[in-house]
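batch job 7 of whatever, protein = tRNA threonylcarbamoyl adenosine modification protein YeaZ
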Amino acid sequence: MLVLAVDTATPAVTAGVVELAPDSPPRLLAKRVTLNAKAHGELLTPHISDSLEEAGHTFADLDAIVVGAGPGPFTGLRVGLATAAALGQALNRPVYPVATTDAIARDAASGHPLLVATDARRKEVYWAAYDAAGRRTDGPHVERPQDLAEKLPALGVHHATGEGAEIYQEILGLELLGAKHPTPEGLVAAAAAEVLAKARPAALTPLYLRRPDAVEPTGRKRVTRA
């Protein structure tokens, strides 16, 4: 099966074309990744087109689409989900959402209980915990790293990965692994069972975990005349 993978839940604008077959790990055919938290809307579609061209395929060749559903900041995250949804509708292909932290955990493949923490800004992290087999056991949540550090003994993790884990390594005190952002292979691996089974995809629900900064005004401001 030919799968398009996209993610915009982290500063990495990620797109890739992956070949997926039963009893085999996902095989990357082409990818484009740019680290720019302000360019998701500008770069994602060109990255998709360039990946398909390099892989020697067209949109019509795709069998499925996998998209990172976060957690992530509102503005970036919605770009990937909206793009994947539009492509799925236009091509009549299923779109499978996966937690971005699940994809990063697959990339890390540590074989140990693992904490995945990405940068949530505002001096917070998005995090989820995984067992040695890579199954999520807690999260995802958004929290201050100081508060998360207090929960680590109960979570039973000694390794961490993700950009948030790197930024706050001194606070978390965990051995750091190298998977900072999700890869196309990790995204597809996280959804492989559903994709191969041609299961009905879950709803494309973004994992924002907190309200956006911008809010709609609730009323007019009273003006006092001099």
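notes: The domain at 2-100+183-197 is CATH 3.30.420.40 (Nucleotidyltransferase; domain 5).
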